[in-house]
Known about the structure:
- The protein is mostly beta strands.
- It is built from two helices and 13 strands.
Amino acid sequence: xxxxxxxxxxxxxxxxxxxxxxxxxxxxxxxxxxxxxxxxxxxxxxxxxxxxxxxxxxxxxxxxxxxxxxxxxxxxxxxxxxxxxxxxxxxxxxxxxxxxxxxxxxxxxxxxxxxxxxxxxxxxxxxxxxxxxxxxxxxxxxxxxxxxxxxxxxxxxxxxxxxxxxxxxxxxxxxxxxxxxxxxxxxxxxxxxxxxxxxxxxxxxxxxxxxxxxx
Length: 215
């Protein structure tokens, strides 16, 4: 009996190992520009795999698409800078749109104080839902750690280890938020699957250790 139970346990562990997705590290080579071409010179990969938006270059779009996942990364912005990491990004007309994890200098950039409940501030679901007031953000020039978890349509935004925003995209509250946002006229916005986007908002920003675990 003990042998049978042990065999079953080993088999179960093996099955879990087969189905559990391993983390995927995204490098600069994991992205193209919005025309499907390799990243232009304004985006550079520096020592330690750091992706640096150094000069005007346009947004970067991940080559692969994701639905439910965990994505973790470290980032910093220059003083007064504005940027973001977007997910569930799809092309609508001539532009690429998705939900944005806002990354901004809350102290210096005027946009950080805009939007209902500071929905333009760091760690917000940009223009959709603001983060908690006690979020543990580090100032411009210092590295922050962020994480987005999406499972069964529920979105969670983490900042430096703390859950700071959460929303269920299957609810009426979500529909109401989209209807009041900048995306209200975009049919099919945030369809539950799409690319990642590293934003070029005209400012210097650094990303590193971008790791995606599909669910």
